[in-house]
Amino acid sequence: MKAKVPEAVERCRIQKGPLASNALAGWNGAFEVRKDGIKLFYICSDGLGWEHVSVSVVNKTRCPTWEEMCFIKNLVWEAEEVVMQIHPRKSEYVNCHPYVLHLWRPINQVIPTPNPLMVGLKI
């Protein structure tokens, strides 16, 4: 995660209700932000060796798009940090809501990535 919560992100922090936090919590907290007129809700946390962000569209009638997930990734992490979505073993599924997606990054570990040629040529 970025070393410090940017001021523009801090203004999006949820400060009232059961998910309230303040700047002293650093990245741990809930936030709402608009992208292209769509309100996105995300919760950030770090613990047990992981940085984690869960992302949903506020009306929760669909999953976030790739572009929306990239937008949140770039708010929270540096451009060159690698994060991932994980498809766990079926026996470990936890699904609290069908329209929430998650981004993960292990702390103090490098996530291996395949050679970009495995996907295709950059044109």
Strand sequence of the main sheet, in spatial order?
Answer: 1-2-3-4
Into which percent range does the helicity of residues fall? Answer: 10-25%
Oligomer: single chain
Biggest beta sheet summary = 4 strands, antiparallel
Per the principal axes of the C-alpha atoms, what is the gross shape?
globular
How far apart, in Å, are the first and last alpha carbons? 30 Å
Radius of gyration: 15 Å
Approximately what portion of the residues adopt beta-strand conformation? 25-35%
Number of helices: 2
How many runs of DSSP E, i.e. beta strands?
A: 4
Structure characteristics:
single chain; four-stranded antiparallel sheet; globular; 2 helices
